[in-house]
Fold this protein.
Amino acid sequence: MRLKFSGLLILLLIMMTAISGCKTAGTGTGGDAKYSMFFTPADHITQLVQQNELIKAENVWKQNKVFFKNNPETQTQLENLASSIKLMFQPKLAASKARIDSIKWPVPAEQWPAIKGSLSDAEKMIATVSSDSLLTAFNQSPIELSQLKSTTAEKTKLITDGAAATFHNYPLLTGKNFFDSYPVALSNSEFLDSQAKFFTKIILTAKGTGVPHLMKTYDSDLSEKFKTHLAEQYYKNALRRITGKKTPSLRAIVKALQVTKSAGFKISEIPGCKIAFVRVTSKSLLNQHGIEFGLGIDVDMPINAEQAEANGMFNSQTAKDADIVILINEAVSKINRKTTGYRAEKSQLITGYREVYNNDYDKAQMLYQTAQNLNNNLQYRINQCRNSGLVGGFVLLSMQSEIDMNNKRFTTAQANATNTPRMLNKPILQKYKYKVVSVNDAKLASVQYYIIDRRSKSYYENHFDITQERTFKVAYGVQDEDPKAESILSKFKTEKDLGNYEKQPVSVRLSDILNHYASQRGKDKRYKNIAQIQKSILNDRNEALAEFYSNKYTSDTSNDPRFDSVVVVLNPQGSLGSGFYVTDDIVLTNFHVVEGSNFAEMKLHNNMETFGKVMVYDMNRDLALIKMQTRGKPVTFYTGKSLPAGVTLEAIGHPEGYPYTITRGVFSAYRDLKGMGPAPSGHKVRYIQTDAPINHGNSGGPLFYKDKLVGVNTWGLSKDATEGLNFSIHYAEVIDFLKQNGVMYRK
C-alpha cells in the first residue's frame, strides 16, 4: 500500500522587516567581495587603486556595469582609472617599440629566435591594449599603441619580403624546417610553389641523405601537385643516372623506383614506360586441386594491371599496348596442416532437470509479512495525526521521509514475494571432456614469373617461394548442452576458422616480385616472336602438371605390397580409422571416420605423417574421398561379376588402434541391405558378408581377395549378439562412387 497526501493546507504567518537606505536599485557581488549599502563597487575600485591593482579594479567595473550606469557620480572615478591604466601601458608599449626598432634584417639564423620572440611579444602587447574596453570607453587609447602597430607592421613586411632570398641561403638539406624557424609566418604551400624552380634544382643536384631529410621535413608543407612534379623529376633524373642515353630496362626502372621511394617520393605513374601485369595459372591445376589456395597480388606499384586467362595471356589490350609485360604463374600451392599436440579439458553438460525446494521462498514471505506489519503500524499513526488538527498536520510533514521509506520497503517486499517461486528446476550435470588441439597450419607455394621487354625483345624467367604459417588452438568435442559452451568456444578457434584461413589467398606485393627480379643477376634471353615465349611458358606449366600427376611413391616393403596402399586416418576430433589409395593422391575411407572435419591427419606405412582434405562423400554408402598431400600406391580393383563362396578374404586396418593388422575370413554372400551410413536413404547398398574380424579401427580399410580390392570394411554385429557377421561395402558400389566423382581407378 502506498500512502499519498493532497489537500493539506497549512497557514503560516511570517513577519518580515525591510530596511532600505540606499539610492541604487540593488547591490551585487564583484569577485569575492560582498557589496552592500556600506561597501559598494565604487568603494571596491577605490580600494584596489590604492593597492595599485588596476586590472582588478577594471574587472570590478566590467562585472558591475549596471551599478556604475545607475550612479553617474562614479564617472569621474572611472575616467581616473582609465587614465591610470593608460599610464601603466605607455612605458611597456614604448619598450616593445624600442625592441622592434632595434631589429636588423637580414641576420644569421642564430638570431631568428630572438627576433621571433620580440615580434611575438609586440603582437601580444598590441592585442592586450587594443582589447582593453575601459580605455576604449573613455577614449584613453595611448599614442604609443599606434606607433607600435606601425613599427611592427614595417618590420614584418621587411622580413616577409626577404623570405625568398633567405630561403635560397638556408641549409634545406640538413637544417630544421625553414617555416618553423623563420621569424614571421608564411603561407607555406604557396611560398614553396613560388620557389618551385629553386626547390627542384636543390633536390636534383643533392647527394647522400639530404633529399630524404628534405622531403621528410617539408612533406606536409608541399602541395600535392608540387609533390607529384618533384617525384616525376626525381625519378627521371635517377633513371638517367642509371641508364644514360640507353633505353631503360625493367631492372633500371625498378632500381630508379627504389631510389625514388627511398628518397621519400611517391610515384603515381611511371612516365615514359607502359607496364602490364597479367596473372596466368593453369586451369587444370585449379580443377584438379593442385592449387589449394589462391595468390593475391597486391599491385602496389604505378602500373596497369589486368588479369587474363592462360590462353589469352597476350591478347588483352593492356598487354598489347604495354612496353613490358609481367606474367605470374602459380606452379604449386599446398596446405600443410599438422597437429603438434592436444590436451583434454574437463567440463559439464546438462542432461536434464529435477525439481527442488527454493529456500529463498520462505525468506521472501517472511520479509513481506514484516513489511506488512510495519505498514499497518504506520497507517495507524497517520490516521491519528489526521484527526489532530493543525498540530497533526505539522507532525505529518515531519513524517514524510519515514512514509516514503515505508512505501519503498513495502513495494519491494511485495514484488520479491510475488516473483520468488516455491520450487526450482535444478540442472542435472554430467562430467565430460573436450579436446584442445594445437594445429600448425602452413601455406607453401612456388610461383614462377616472366618479365617480357617488348622494346628490347628479351625476357627473363625465375621463381620464388612463399611460406605462411599460423598456429591455432582448436576446441573439438564441445557439447551444445554445456552451459559454458559459448564461453569455451570464444577462447579457441574452430574447424571453420581453419577452413577460412586456408581459403584466404596469400597476399604478395608486386614490388616484392620486382625487387626479387632486380636483385637477380641472371641474363635475359632474346626472343624472335611472342609465340616463342608462349611455348616456353607452356613447357614450364606442362612440367608442373607432369610433376603434379606423376607418382613419386616407391614401396620399400617386399613382404606384402598391399600394405603400401593402406593409411591410418586420424580425425582431429579423436577417432581413428583406416583408408587406402584409389589413385596416387586420393584416399578412400568411410564417411563416419572423417565425419565432422574437413581435414584428417594421415600416417603412411613408411611412418611418414601427412594431411588430407575431404573432397566428397556419400552419407548413404558411408564413403568419402580425401585429397592427399603425399602420393601413394593405389589398389587394384577386382572386376569379376561374382566371388566363389568360401574363398579367403583378408582385411587390412588398424583395429582398436593396432596399426596395420591383417585378419582373414571367408566370403559368405552378397547382401543388399539398408545403408548403414550416418544419413541412410531409401536406396539399398550392396555389402559383402564375411567372417573376417572387423573391429573399431578397421572402418574404411580395404578387403582383399588375393591382391584385388573387393570391399571397404564398414561394420560388424556386436559380439554380444552374433559373432562372425561382418560387412564390407561391395566393390561395385565403390566403383560407382568413384565414377560419379570423375576419379579413375586401377583395374
In short: The longest strand covers residues 324-357. Confidence is low (pLDDT under 50) at residues 1-31, 551-557.
